[in-house]
TrEMBL record:
Keywords recorded for this protein, A-Z: Hydrolase
GO molecular function: hydrolase activity
Record family assignment: Belongs to the AB hydrolase superfamily. AB hydrolase 2 family.
Residue span, Phospholipase/carboxylesterase/thioesterase domain: 13-203
Name assigned to this protein: Phospholipase/carboxylesterase
Species for this entry: Chryseobacterium polytrichastri
The keyword RNA-binding is annotated on this UniProt entry: no
Pfam families the UniProt entry points to: Abhydrolase_2
Length: 206
């Protein structure tokens, strides 16, 4: 009932890189899928780490289902991101040089991890995601992002992620001292567009 740690890598070996990018795939996707997106990002000098969800899904139900219905998978998934961060730290990469990129279920997981562990990171990109739970439990979210840049991109409407949750997430991150940019595309659909990748490079991977 928990994920097995399985981290795929690309880019520089962690012990030879100053920066790390942690990429979190969506439901039904794979670590290899999301690693291939890194070709469109300004991350040539980064170590790129992508954990693989067991059975291709981080948690079984919608991210806005009651949290207990997504357990124990959700807690295990958050722990997997923590272990991926630890791998970068143990290779000598500083926290403020650790970056994140998540899509869909992976964006939700990325944002939930970050809000629970706020500190000065390098930056984060979350495409179509928000913090997790049927209700937002603000007590779970602690720390200070110290102006970490975070980019949230989404479509309105999106079949899986209500735009209201994206805005609510942006507000929580701002309260926690993140430098948040959100961009909502009308009727774009559940995918990543070229402008979002350009904004990721301009705002985060500069």
């Amino acid at each position: 009932m928990s994920h097995i740690l399985d981290i795929k890598t690309a880019g520089k070996p962690p012990d030879q890189a100053e920066k790390a990018l942690i990429m979190i795939h969506g439901r039904g996707g794979s670590a290899q899928d999301i690693l291939s997106l890194s070709q469109h990002l300004n991350v040539e000098e980064y170590a790129i780490l992508a954990p693989q969800a067991t059975n291709g899904s981080w948690y079984p139900l919608s991210f806005i289902a009651p949290v207990e219905q997504n357990e124990p998978w959700l807690s295990s998934a958050i722990e997997m991101i923590g272990k991926t961060v630890k791998m970068a730290l143990e290779a000598g990469i500083k926290t403020d040089n650790i970056y994140f990129f998540g899509f869909s279920q992976g964006a939700c997981l990325t944002l939930e991890f970050l809000a629970r562990n706020a500190q000065k990171f390098g930056g984060a990109v979350a495409i179509i995601g928000g913090v997790i739970g049927d209700k937002i439990n603000r007590e779970n979210y602690k720390g200070d992002f110290a102006q970490t840049p975070i980019f949230l991109g989404t479509s309105n409407p999106d079949f899986h992620v209500p735009v209201e949750r994206v805005y609510a997430t942006a507000n929580i991150l701002r309260e926690m001292n993140a430098d948040v940019t959100e961009k909502v595309y009308a009727n774009f659909g559940h995918s990543i567009n070229e402008e979002e990748m350009e904004l990721a490079n301009t705002l985060i991977f500069k």
